[in-house]
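User: Run a structure prediction on this.
Assistant: Running it now.
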Amino acid sequence: MSDNSICIVPRLSSYPEPEKKASEILAWLVSRDIVKPEMSDCVFGKSGYAISEGAKSVVEEPQDAPFGLGTNGLTITTGRTIFDAGANGIDELICPNCGENIAQEDWDMFNDWFAEKSDNITCPRCHHGSEVHLFRMDFQWGFSNLGFTFWNWPEFTQKFLDEFREKLGCDIDIVYLHM
């Protein structure tokens, strides 16, 4: 079996006070017994918050919750990150200004965004800067300084995603990674 993740990412490049919001969301998840309150070795490469019994109430297939897996937790990211789906071959990245597909261009256009110099990326064709979320993509990625990655969890219920969106106070992107 291969590992996978589901990332819930605010649709804001610069979420205000991401550490504070991360703590609030974690407290909410712990209060509902969705994740354990203490950190453990339950995610890739660092500590995270392991799945807990309440997780069964927020996933579509509770019997598929990863209780028996070593990698079954939540990683919280508070730093400018591109949450990608691990896909090879991005075919479409459409500039909202000129309508050109810039997927095959040099991706250095993301450098200023990633360095937190701007929430925009500049189209290499028309040289117009636009907020990264305005670009049309044929893939689902997240662009933010805040993100919640759940390792090996089944699909979330729409109710849970709506509650998460409400807690964040903005729209969200859901990014699926299969390794």
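The mean pLDDT is 94.
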